[in-house]
Amino acid sequence: NLLANRVNPGVDDAAKVKAEFLNEIINHGLEISGLDKIAAVNLLRPMLGGYSVIVLLESLKNADEAVAQAACNVLKETIFVHDYFNDVAELAKANKFALEVLRSWAEAEWFKARESLPRRIRAAIFKVAGETNTDDLSPASEAYTRSDIPLHANAMLVKRQPGSLEMIGELKKSGLEVVYAGDVVGTGSSRKSGINSIQWHLGREIEGVPNKKTGGIVIGTAIAPIFFNTAEDSGALPIVADASALETGDVVDIYPYAGEIFRVGRVNLSAEGWISIRTRARFSASGG
């Protein structure tokens, strides 16, 4: 579990050690009980690029075609290869697995294989009325902890709206996804650490990536443009819609393709589950 899930991807120092260790197993005959060559190749998948790329490139030339194919499959999903693209292209002149990788990249198979956005998302609303600036989400007084997302996220809204994290915990008991809603969201400069905090509490785990999450939905009557872009880049779904009538505990159906949001119920905060109501309030939405 430590090797698979607790090593930061990319070019972190620990990622270099991980890649070099796995390379010894895959390409240089190191034998480890319980960890064969194919499993070692698959442990490179969540590294997303960085130090894993040169190991995968070398593995395409492995004499064991099963290993080479496994490396090919992982490299197809790896797009942060930078100048190593040229090495793959050169190798493809004589290596069928490298050629298969190039064709896969050309067809954008890595993108097409991703899960589609659902046509309907049922969620519970967590509302912060008025303006939420990034200092509310990522307080400057706690800036020294920003590199530790789980720790830093504990400071989210502590001063702006005390009890917010406890309320989010209660809303999660409904089993529904919890959506961050506000009248104005994301003004200020600490946009990346701000969205990190929202995602830590409202997002989902990333396989093989420790201490960071993706996903999450933010609804705002107004969302600061640069915060909107940062949320998208981080894997969240920002939606610009009139949030003035939304309240904490509302249950909504979000139709992202149709650009519509309907209020369909209320979370029963005194017990698990949610209560259906008959009225369907419609909120037009855009963005995301």
Question: Please, could you describe this protein's structure?
Answer:
With 288 residues, this protein is of the alpha/beta class. It folds into two domains: 1-113, Serine Threonine Protein Phosphatase 5, Tetratricopeptide repeat; 121-283, Alpha-Beta Barrel (Aconitase, domain 4). 37% of the residues lie in helices and 25% in strands. The chain contains 13 helices and nine strands. It has helices at residues 2-5, 13-27, 37-42, 51-59, 65-76, 84-91, 96-106, 109-112, 134-137, 149-152, 164-172, 191-202, 225-233, and strands at residues 121-133, 177-187, 204-206, 209-214, 217-223, 237-241, 250-255, 260-267, 274-286. It has a seven-stranded mixed barrel. A hairpin with a 6-residue loop joins β8 and β9 (274-286). Residues 277-281 have low confidence and may be disordered.
Quick gist of this model?
Residues 277-281 have low confidence and may be disordered. The protein is elongated and about 65 Å long.
Could you give the topology of this structure?
Layout (H helix, E strand, L loop, with lengths): L1 H4 L7 H15 L9 H6 L8 H9 L5 H12 L7 H8 L4 H11 L2 H4 L8 E13 H4 L11 H4 L11 H9 L4 E11 L3 H12 L1 E3 L2 E6 L2 E7 L1 H9 L3 E5 L8 E6 L4 E8 L6 E13 L2
Parallel strand pairs: 1-2, 2-5, 5-6
Antiparallel strand pairs: 1-7, 3-4, 6-9, 7-8, 8-9
Helix pairs in contact: 2-4, 4-5, 5-7
